[in-house]
Structure formats: structure tokens, C-alpha cells
């Protein structure tokens, strides 16, 4: 495989099709390197909503590409690896929302962006890991159902104690691997290092952190910090930007299993093929787009 040739083909196809490539911070290094925009789910959803190109190649997992399509229904959104899903997003269904609404009619639904489009369509507002606290605080109802991530939900509950928040039982299979013992071991091995974690980690891990934030917020924090060493509690794709922006600092990943198998499905070849064969195009039912768009726009308004 001639990597340089594939990169040239991608550049040429991008020009021909008036396309941009956006990549999540968990993508493999080679994809982050060629992407036009790299970031967390909030940043990428804003980029997709604001850009004027006709085609978006979304390198991430399925709910992210769906969100791009919902925010830009007139654009063609291509998703190179069709089976790159998110197990957390699949832990909640439309039927679950219907039954919650029946059981708790006075509550508003704040839905994490890691969720299917049909679930978003039945929610009042969407949030990402970077703005969940702000959205719950600013939403004009004190009774909230937060779903599907129970760990992000617990983090929000602690930050917004004045609200009555019901949690759902979902979790990220990758972040869930990190246990308190891993943190204690890492802190012992690197006593000078600050601990930066994603709020999808277990509450007992989050409790020990020096900083809790989205992938972009972790990168920004480490970049502006005076500290020289950091223990990182999230997926290891984040190391690409951390090291690129901070060549003089040291980063230790908290657990060797911090690899999201779905985020790692995209390759340079699948990105080239996405552009070459227009695949796989994201299409969402019109009535779902309408409801989900309302909830996503509410997030942009409140954050
Ligand atoms: P970010 O909001 O930090 O991009 O995280 C998305 C995600 O899926 C974390 O597992």
C-alpha cells in the first residue's frame, strides 16, 4: 500500500467534490493528519453546521455522522465504515423514551449526543461532554432525565445539585475499563503528573481527577497548563494532538485497553473509497431529522 499515493488521491477527490474531512480526536493518527478539522463531538457538530462545502466525510462513529447530517440536511454526509457504531448510543431506544415520558410526564429529557437520531428526535435538548453541565443548568426545567450515559450523568448531578436528575443505565465500554486501582497505580508511578479524565469514566475515577472534560477540553487544558506530566483517562487517539501540541510534555495513558474498536475502523483507504464511490451516505427519515434538529439547535442556543 502506497500511503503517499492514497493521500494524494484523497486531496484530489476532495477538490473535485468540494468536500471536507472531519475527524474525531479518537481517530487513527494518519486520519487526524489529513483531516481538515479534528476535535471533540461539540466542535465537530459546529463545524459541520457552519461550513459551506457540499460533502462532509465524517471520520468518527455513526451517531456523529448522523448529527452532521441532521445539522446540514442539504449536504451529502459520507461515513467511510458503515459498521462503526457506538455501543453506548445503542443502550437507549425510542421505545425507552416513550415509556420514560409516560412515567415521568413533568421531566425534560437531556440527551447526550452519543445516541441514535430517533432518540434525539424525542428529546428536549442534546448535550455533549463539553457542555452537559451548562445545558442542564440552563435548561428551563428543574426536573431532568439525563440519558444514556450514567457516568456523565453522575458528573452533571454533582455539578448541578439544585436539580432533580434521573439517570439512565448506559455506559461507554472503553471508559468503563478504568478502575480506581488503575488511577492509584498510575499516580504512584507518576507522582508529579496531573490526572485528566473524560466524564464517561466511573464516578470514583472522576472524583480523583485534577481536571474533567471532553477530549478537546483535555487537550486545551494540557496545552495551557504549566505542568509537564499528565495521566490521561480517555481513548488513546487523543495522544496524537496532545503530543503534537506539547512536544516537551509527557503523557501516560491510564489503562492499556483505552482503544475504542469502532473509532479505529476508519483507514486512509476507507476515506479514499468514501470519496471515490460516494459511500456510505447517511440518510435519515425526514420526521426524525426535524425533531432531532430542533433538539440539537437547542443545544447550540444554550451552550
Ligand atoms: P467528546 O465529546 O470528548 O468528543 O467525546 C465523545 C465520546 O464519544 C467519548 O467517548
From TrEMBL:
The keyword Iron applies. Its main location: cytoplasm. [4Fe-4S] cluster binds at residues 86, 172, 260. Keywords: 4Fe-4S, Cytoplasm, Iron, Iron-sulfur, Metal-binding, Pyridine nucleotide biosynthesis, Transferase. It is found in: Cytoplasm. Iminosuccinate binds at residues 24, 41, 112-114, 129, 198-200, 215. InterPro entries: NadA, NadA_sf, Quinolinate_synth_type2. It is an enzyme of class 2 (transferase). One of its GO terms (cellular component) is cytosol. GO terms for biological process: 'de novo' NAD+ biosynthetic process from L-aspartate. Its EC number is 2.5.1.72. Its cofactor is [4Fe-4S] cluster. It catalyses: iminosuccinate + dihydroxyacetone phosphate = quinolinate + phosphate + 2 H2O + H(+). Transmembrane segments: none annotated. One of its GO terms (molecular function) is quinolinate synthetase A activity. Pfam families: NadA. Binds 1 [4Fe-4S] cluster per subunit. Pathway: Cofactor biosynthesis; NAD(+) biosynthesis; quinolinate from iminoaspartate: step 1/1. Catalyzes the condensation of iminoaspartate with dihydroxyacetone phosphate to form quinolinate. Belongs to the quinolinate synthase family. Type 2 subfamily. This is Quinolinate synthase. It comes from Caldicellulosiruptor changbaiensis.
Amino acid at each position: 500500500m502506497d500511503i503517499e499515493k492514497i493521500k494524494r488521491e484523497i486531496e484530489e477527490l476532495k477538490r473535485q467534490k468540494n468536500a471536507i474531512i472531519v475527524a474525531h480526536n479518537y481517530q487513527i493518527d494518519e486520519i487526524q493528519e489529513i483531516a481538515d478539522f479534528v476535535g471533540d463531538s461539540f466542535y465537530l457538530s459546529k463545524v459541520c453546521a457552519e461550513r459551506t462545502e457540499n460533502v462532509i466525510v465524517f471520520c468518527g462513529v455513526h451517531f456523529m455522522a448522523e448529527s452532521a447530517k441532521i445539522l446540514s440536511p442539504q449536504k451529502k454526509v459520507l461515513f467511510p465504515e458503515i459498521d462503526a457504531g457506538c455501543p453506548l448510543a445503542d443502550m437507549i431506544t425510542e421505545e425507552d423514551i416513550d415509556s420514560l415520558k409516560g412515567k415521568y410526564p413533568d421531566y425534560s429529557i437531556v440527551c447526550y449526543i452519543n445516541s441514535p437520531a430517533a432518540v434525539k428526535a424525542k428529546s428536549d435538548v442534546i448535550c455533549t461532554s463539553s457542555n452537559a453541565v451548562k445545558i442542564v443548568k440552563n435548561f428551563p426545567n428543574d426536573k431532568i432525565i439525563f440519558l444514556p450515559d450514567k457516568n456523565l450523568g453522575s458528573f452533571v448531578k454533582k455539578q448541578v445539585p439544585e436539580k432533580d436528575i434521573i439517570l439512565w443505565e448506559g455506559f461507554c465500554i472503553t471508559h468503563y475499563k478504568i478502575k480506581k486501582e488503575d488511577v492509584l497505580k498510575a499516580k504512584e508511578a507518576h507522582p508529579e503528573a496531573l490526572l485528566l479524565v473524560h466524564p464517561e469514566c466511573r464516578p470514583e475515577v472522576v472524583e480523583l481527577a485534577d481536571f474533567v472534560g471532553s477530549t478537546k477540553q483535555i487537550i486545551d487544558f494540557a496545552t495551557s497548563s504549566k505542568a509537564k506530566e499528565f495521566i490521561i483517562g480517555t481513548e488513546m487517539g487523543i495522544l496524537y494532538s496532545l503530543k503534537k501540541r506539547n512536544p516537551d510534555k509527557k503523557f501516560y495513558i491510564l489503562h492499556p485497553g483505552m482503544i475504542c474498536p469502532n473509532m479505529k475502523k476508519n483507514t486512509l483507504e476507507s476515506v479514499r473509497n468514501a470519496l471515490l464511490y460516494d459511500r456510505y451516505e447517511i440518510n435519515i427519515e425526514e420526521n426524525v431529522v426535524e425533531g432531532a434538529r430542533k433538539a440539537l439547535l437547542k443545544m447550540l442556543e444554550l451552550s
